[in-house]
Design brief:
single chain, mainly beta, four-stranded mixed β-sheet, 1 helix
């Protein structure tokens, strides 16, 4: 699918050894100064936790939602809210797949 403005953004950085992504790193004070939007995810450096803005509140994400796997997963509601790090993709040395929901309620692996 074609990504448009306001749907979602992904940052993938090649460090020469593979791929990774980095969440925005904010203190609690910086986080609270944001105009938060549903679905935002940050790394809170004050509490040393990953947090998501859900139902008008910042909540700590369960570390079990970050999953390492050797196989790709379908982009559907069953994998909602999970990050999959896939290694050994066909023809590609390292891959980063994120299951994302767009503003039209569609799920995509990017």
């Amino acid at each position: 699918p074609e990504m448009g403005v306001g749907e979602f953004d992904t940052l993938v950085v090649n460090d020469g050894a593979g791929h990774f992504f980095r969440l925005p790193r904010l203190t609690t004070a910086q986080r609270d100064a944001l105009t938060a939007q549903e679905g935002m995810v940050i790394s809170n450096t004050t509490t040393d936790t990953i947090q998501a803005y859900i139902n008008s509140d910042w909540v700590n994400m369960d570390p079990r939602l970050l999953t390492f796997s050797t196989t790709a997963h379908d982009a559907n509601a069953a994998h909602r809210g999970m990050f999959y790090f896939i290694e050994g993709g066909i023809g590609v040395e390292n891959n980063l797949y994120c299951i994302m929901k767009d503003r039209f309620e569609g799920y995509y692996a990017v």
